[in-house]
Amino acid sequence: LHVTSPAAHARRGRRQRTPVWTWMLPAAMLLAAACIPLLVWYAADAILNSSDGELTQRTTDPTAPGYEVLVLPSPSHMVLSLDPAGELASVTLLSLASNDRGGTALFIPAETLVEPDVRLVDVFGAEGAAATRRAVAELININTDDANLLDENGWAGVTAPAAPVPVDNPDDLSTPPPSDDAPGTVVFPAGNVSIEADQAAEYMEWVNGGEARARRLDRQIAFWDAWVTIIAASSDPTTIPGERDSGLGRMLAGLANGPAILEPVMGEEILLDDGRPAIRVDVPALRARVVQMIPFPLPVEPGARPRVRLLDGVGGLDVASDYSRGLVVAGAQITIIGNAPSFGTERTQVVYHDKRFEKQAESFSKTLGGASVQFEPLDD
To answer: Contact 84/200 with Cβ under 8 angstroms?
Structure first.
């Protein structure tokens, strides 16, 4: 016979009762599991039927009200060229015309000033290629799709498929004379010379003693002109380095596929206080020229330019050709071009949706001949 006290029996009874949470927790888990399919269906429906951030195109007639089309950035590329000593010698800005048929190459001297006493070559020497690319982008107020850094070996690699390149050389290029009464050695004589791939960097970046630094831009243009001519005349696709649909290969193929404009960036040649040669350029004129060759550029950094929808409110206007260029010079990034929801608008309007862009909106108004300016906040 086993006898227990009433108090011990009460304690054992309390221990044997089932706590509430032991059945509520599994029930809650089962309910949550049952809700998962409903949540998945609701989320999928919200995502698949959302048009937020998406251009919903309903009109396909370019002459009809409501027609809009997304604008892709103009193809562009930057080449940073180094001389055999590894210093920045020049920057070449490349762009292509419509359908990659022709384009422009703009040659910028390495001695170009980006600050009162800082040149591009100084930026490269102190901070490297990425900082130099950004300095060029800030100078011209746009960015490029891609960039190449070509040293002596790099130039040999990209020009090898077309080498030797016959160049109409404008000057005798000579080594410095060993003494006052002894002439230097002519390395590249004036006239028609054949430039081998391993000579390309040396030839284009050569500077004769006492000559203006910008003079070598003439030799660069002469080389590029001959190089593009070889590519245009060849039926062999391997004369183009790399891929034909991207990077430098695309630029060369496009330049060879139509009229190619090759021109230097000229400026005032000066000496800085420490004796360094420098070139001071007309920045507004340079930026205007760049917009002519790259009509729909990328901003220096995302968000740096207000994104603009440019709409024809009259009907029959060529807004892309007649109005976009001035807006881009004023700082716009054209992302959509098309027609207003209805024609018959009596006055040009600049409508902006972010208070941060009030000054830019006023600038766009002046560009468009005194358009009315209106702020409309967006609910989303």
So the answer is: no
